[in-house]
Structure prediction request, 225 residues.
Amino acid sequence: GQNIDQPTEMTATEGAIVQINCTYQTSGFNGLFWYQQHAGEAPTFLSYNVLDGLEEKGRFSSFLSRSKGYSYLLLKELQMKDSASYLCAVRDSNYQLIWGAGTKLIIKP
Amino acid sequence: DVKVTQSSRYLVKRTGEKVFLECVQDMDHENMFWYRQDPGLGLRLIYFSYDVKMKEKGDIPEGYSVSREKKERFSLILESASTNQTSMYLCASSRDGSSSGANVLTFGAGSRLTVL
Prediction:
């Protein structure tokens, strides 16, 4: 079966750095996505990785290792507004998205 | 600002009722999707559509149907609502049928349905 694993919940301090991991086992691989979802709101796109390595976008970076079936989302200089759920999704060989259950990130002052 | 609009944010229905969830996008996107989101589970695809009047079953189509009569509108229908359909329903759209590149999903804010 296909599976995406990410931690259920993480807590971090304002101004710090946090890394949210995502491991996957899917039938093929055609890209990995990270979305952010604030409570009661729509998920919004953060990043897309299809090749190994680090993609940096401001305070957020996303890393991919296809050989290890692993990705992480790195959030720097955390702000209170970063409190949200972070969803990892992999596009499989049929170009269908497989979603993780999401990681709820709690930022404390 | 481009958007996907879901007409109802909160609905409460009774078992056996017919339920319509409407979704409209203003981005001229080809693809539209209906997902349900439940605690502890990843998003699960119910139905999707790559073109007007076209529909494809997702992972959990049982108990649902869809309609896409116009490009911008994709409706989800629960013919006879049941309590296990209590959930958050998310509509999304993406640019075109190309499988290359990111082809990012734009989501609506969701419709929270409670079936009593």
Notes: Chain A has a mean pLDDT of 96. The two ends of chain A are 40 Å apart (CA to CA). Chain A has no helices and eleven strands. The CA atoms of residues 21 and 63 of chain A lie 9 Å apart.
